[in-house]
Structure formats: structure tokens, C-alpha cells
Design goal:
The protein is an all-beta fold. The chain folds into two domains: 16-253 and 376-407 and 477-519, no CATH class; 309-333 and 413-466, no CATH class. The chain is built from one helix and 24 strands. It has one helix spanning 137-146, and strands at residues 24-25, 40-41, 114-117, 152-155, 160-161, 172-174, 177-180, 183-186, 192-195, 199-202, 208-217, 228-247, 292-294, 297-299, 325-332, 345-353, 380-393, 396-399, 426-427, 453-454, 480-486, 490-494, 497-499, 516-519. The strands form six sheets. Strands 3, 4, 5, 6, 9, 10, 11, 12, 17, 18, 21, 22, 23 and 24 form a 14-stranded parallel sheet that branches. A two-stranded antiparallel ribbon has the order 1-2. The protein has a two-stranded antiparallel ribbon with strand order 7-8. It is rod-shaped, with a radius of gyration of 44 Å.
Length: 520
């Protein structure tokens, strides 16, 4: 049979007198209220909200912490039974001293220090009794925060749809009840409490217990790098007995870096000859490392460094120098007879001509590197503990996967190299060329009726293409831990099943995968 847990707060020698008699009994021996102890609770005020309005805010000097003793299973300050004629101060001791669990049986506390919650109950300022239970745990916590007398919230079968639950100092919550009318019997079946934000425990100085509950955070990551949690305990004293916390969704992936938008310039002209090779790929930027943990949770790192531009392509190779070629040229001599009588044109001998040389193409410039790197992915942590003391007995912590790291922005392509150009043609003066003198314009009057042309030399090599810019640095993936403890926190675990997910994938090009394990 599944059992609740009892905590022995008054078994320390010399403190038995503290378990005095000026306490109003709230449960018989063996009931879930006292988990096997004949303990009691001082009732400092009436039932919350008896006038139909939410109870007033406590003006207790301890900031609203509960001053009444608790039972062994869910109480704030459990005390052992003692001489009813004696009295003494409340005793607060470490919550990680546990006894063997007691049988799952008994009846709930029926004093005004308790608030009852069932599905379908009515949220009002006067709800909370067995006859008129509240409808949500959040509403019950709101009432308890305003009434220092409340130390217990009993939760009937679920599921309950909640938003964010903020625990109240010294107010313990116990599920595992079967409700029939106004009759509550213990069955130790944990009710499911569905939340869309993590349960918060902030600065709880009095031991506060959650008992026989199943908390599921159904939140999905809506922002880049968002971390998901089931319960965040910040500088608090917290006891979890047979509590299961699950965060099934994958944490948010990190944002990707910005891509380059400036390609390399194409090759120009008039450059000196070169090897003509392509430009090298630009080197990638440095990656963003792991993020940092603090009291508010995990903060991913980023961005990675920008990528470096690609290298310029090489200029084209040198053209072949053309050989001198012989060309028959013509010339005109003075016409002794004025037109149209005749002309006196004669050929001249062959003359050597050096054709014009070709030119090389120029290399394209490299493309710009990625503008910015990626950002880290978020973590998935069902129980996040920063400072304080948390004791777990039984139950299960189940984490989903961490978010993937963001990829760095990509680089742009390099510019194309220009083609080499052939040398220009050489024109040899011929007879009767335009603007010549001494020739008449009769067909075949001259031995050269057109201008002889010598083609230019071959082209140089094309310029190389510029290299593509390097990708900006990627980022680390987020973690997946069943629980995380930091800030000098103390976490003790007994019989709790720790299920972790998968660490977030690395962000390209050089990020790292996120860590994963039962805990850090």
C-alpha cells in the first residue's frame, strides 16, 4: 500500500517540552492530519472568510509564516505529543529527518486551520470547508496567504487546471483524498494538478510540505531559448513527499544569428596576373558557450561571434605573348596626274607586326561573413532549487528535452572573377585608306583596297571566384535535468525516481550539445 511520510520534529532530547498542551487538537492518532502523532495546531483565527470576503492579510511579525504546529505528513512545525499541561515555543527543525511511512488511512483535519479543495468547488471568500470547498488550489493559496491561521490545504481528486501556484510560507498541501459529499477518506492517489507556469516557492522560512500530488506543467516554449520548470524553490525550506513533477514539452530553441546580405564584388579589370585560384572560405565565428544559472533560473548565452569574410579570388593567369607576324602593307604615292586621269599606287614589301597582347581576368572579392551568431537553447528542469533546503521522498521527477542551440548566421557567396580579354587587333595602313592622299576612288586602283588587320594575342586566364563568408558562431544546447541545485542549496533524495530528457542539440557550426542527467 502506498504510504504517506511522517516527520519527527520533537524527537530531539531537550525539546520534548516544546510539544506542549496549549494547542487545539485537529486529528486523532493515526489520521493523515497527524500521520501517527498525537499532535495539534493552535488556531489563531476563525475559518477564513467567514464574512464572505477574502480574509485580511496577516500582520504577523514573521511575514505571514504559520505559527501553529503541523502534523507529521504535511505540517510546517511537527511536534511530538507531550504533557498536555505543559507549554512551550514552537520548534522548527530540519525537514530532511524522516520516519518510516505510515499507512494510508485516516480522516482530514476538520479545524478552521484547513482549506478543502475539490474539482467543481466554488471560489469565494467564504469557501474552504468540507461542506463548501474551494474550486482551485490557487484560490485556496490566496485565502491562506491572507489568513495566518491556515496551515493546511487538502486537495480532492483531480485533475485541476491551474495557472501559476505560489506557495505560502508554512502552508502545506496534501492530496490523496477520496471525496463523497462532505466525507473525505484517504486513498493516497495523487491528484493531477495541471499548471501553465511553474509552481513558485519564494523565501519559505517555515518548513512547507507538498504531499501526494502530481504536478504537470503543460507550458510550451513560446520564446526563443525559454526554459521550462515544474517547481522553482528560491531560498526556501521545502519537503516533497510522494510528489511527481513532470515537464513534458521541449524547452525553447535558441534564436539563430543573422545571415550576411552582402555578396562579394565581381572581378574588375586592369589587374596584374596571378594564379587564378578561388578564394578560401571565410573562417567561422567563435561559438557561444553555456549559459548561467541564478535565482530566477537558467539564462542562455549568446550570441556567437560574427563570421569572417571569404578570401578574394586570385587574378587570372598571364596571357601568352604573341609572336611577331609579317603583314603586307600598302602605301600611296603622289599621283602625278590629277584625277580622273589615273593614279600611281604601289605595294610596299611585307613588314613585321607585333600583335597586341591579351590581359588576365581579375578575381572576385570574398563574401561577407555571417552577421551574428546563435543564442543558446533553454533548459528543462522539473525541480529547480536555488539556496535553501529541499527534501524529497518518493515520487518522480520527469524532464523533457533541452532546447537546441541557435545556428550562427550564414555567410554570403563570393563574387565571380572576370574573364581574361584577348589583345586588340592591329591595323596596318593600306592604300586608299580613309583620309589617305594621292589615290582616286576607283575600284582596284590600288593593290590594297582594305585595311589589313592583325588579330590580338590570346586572353589571359579568368579571375578566381571569391570565397564564401564564414558562418557566425553557433550556440550551446540547453540542459535537461530532473533537478538542479545551486546557490549553496541542499537537496536530499530518498527513493525518488529521476527521469531526465535529452540535452539540446548544438547550434552550427561549432556549438556544443546541452548536458543531460538526473541532476547537475
Amino acid at each position: 500500500m502506498k504510504k504517506g511520510l511522517a516527520f519527527a520534529w520533537c524527537v530531539i532530547p531537550g525539546l520534548l517540552a516544546a510539544c506542549g498542551s496549549n494547542l487545539t487538537g485537529i486529528g486523532d492518532s493515526g489520521t493523515p492530519g497527524d500521520a501517527g502523532h498525537d499532535t495539534s495546531v493552535t488556531v489563531e483565527a476563525g475559518e477564513p472568510g467567514q464574512d464572505g470576503n477574502p480574509p485580511p492579510t496577516s500582520d504577523a511579525s514573521d511575514g505571514g509564516s504559520k505559527e501553529s504546529s503541523t502534523d507529521g505528513t504535511i505540517g510546517k512545525e511537527d511536534v511530538a505529543s507531550g504533557d498536555d499541561s505543559s507549554s512551550g515555543p514552537d520548534v522548527t527543525t530540519s525537514p530532511d529527518v524522516v520516519e518510516e511511512p505510515v499507512a494510508c488511512s485516516g480522516s482530514p483535519n476538520t479545524s478552521a486551520a484547513s482549506i478543502f479543495v475539490v474539482v467543481g468547488g466554488t471560489n469565494s471568500g467564504s469557501c474552504g470547508s468540507q461542506a463548501s470547498p474551494c474550486g482551485t488550489v490557487a484560490w485556496a493559496l490566496g485565502l491562506a496567504a491572507k489568513n495566518a491561521a491556515v496551515n493546511y490545504i487538502y486537495v480532492g481528486p483531480g485533475p485541476f487546471s491551474e495557472g501559476e501556484l505560489t506557495l505560502v510560507n508554512g502552508v502545506s498541501i496534501q492530496g490523496g483524498w477520496l471525496v463523497s459529499g462532505i466525507n473525505w477518506t484517504r486513498n493516497c492517489l495523487a491528484p493531477e494538478i495541471d499548471v501553465t507556469l511553474p509552481v513558485m516557492a519564494n523565501g519559505l522560512t517555515s518548513p512547507t510540505t507538498l504531499d501526494t500530488l502530481s504536478i504537470v506543467n503543460n507550458e510550451t516554449a513560446t520564446t526563443a531559448g525559454e526554459s521550462l520548470y515544474g517547481l522553482i524553490s528560491d531560498s526556501s525550506t521545502l519537503v516533497l513527499n510522494d510528489v511527481s513533477i513532470s515537464v513534458p514539452a521541449t524547452a525553447g530553441a535558441g534564436a539563430a544569428g543573422a545571415n550576411a546580405t552582402t555578396p562579394g564584388a565581381p572581378g574588375g579589370s586592369g589587374c596584374t596576373a596571378g594564379g587564378g585560384g578561388a578564394g578560401g572560405l571565410g573562417t567561422g565565428g567563435a561559438a557561444a558557450g553555456a549559459g548561467a544559472f541564478g535565482s530566477s533560473g537558467y539564462t542562455p548565452a549568446g550570441p556567437g561571434a560574427a563570421g569572417n569574410p571569404g578570401g578574394s579570388g586570385g587574378n587570372g593567369t598571364k596571357p601568352v605573348t604573341p609572336a611577331t607576324v609579317p603583314v603586307d602593307g600598302g602605301t600611296c604615292v603622289t599621283n602625278p596626274d590629277p584625277p580622273p586621269i589615273g593614279s600611281n599606287c604601289e605595294d610596299i614589301t611585307t613588314q613585321p607586326i607585333a600583335p597586341n597582347a591579351g590581359v588576365p581576368g581579375c578575381g572576385g572579392s570574398g563574401g561577407a561573413g555571417g552577421v551574428s551568431g546563435g543564442y543558446g537553447g533553454g533548459c528543462n528542469i522539473p525541480l529547480y532549487v536555488w539556496g535553501g533546503t529541499v527534501a524529497l521522498t518518493g515520487g518522480t521527477l520527469t524532464a523533457g528535452s533541452g532546447g537546441a542551440g541557435g545556428a550562427g548566421g550564414t555567410g554570403e557567396t563570393g563574387g565571380a572573377g572576370s574573364a581574361g580579354a584577348a589583345g586588340t587587333s592591329t591595323f596596318v595602313p593600306g592604300c586608299c585608306q580613309s583620309g589617305g592622299t594621292g589615290c582616286i576612288s576607283k575600284v582596284n586602283e590600288c593593290s590594297s583596297t582594305s585595311i589589313p588587320e592583325v588579330p590580338g594575342g590570346p586572353a589571359g586566364g579568368s579571375g578566381g571566384t571569391g570565397g564564401t563568408g564564414g558562418q557566425a558562431g553557433g550556440a550551446a544546447g540547453g540542459c535537461s535535468y530532473a533537478y538542479y541545485s545551486g546557490g549553496s542549496a541542499t537537496v536530499t533524495v530518498s527513493g525518488t525516481v529521476l527521469n531526465h530528457g535529452t540535452g539540446g542539440a548544438l547550434g552550427a557550426p561549432n556549438g556544443t550539445a546541452g548536458p543531460a542527467g538526473p541532476h547537475n
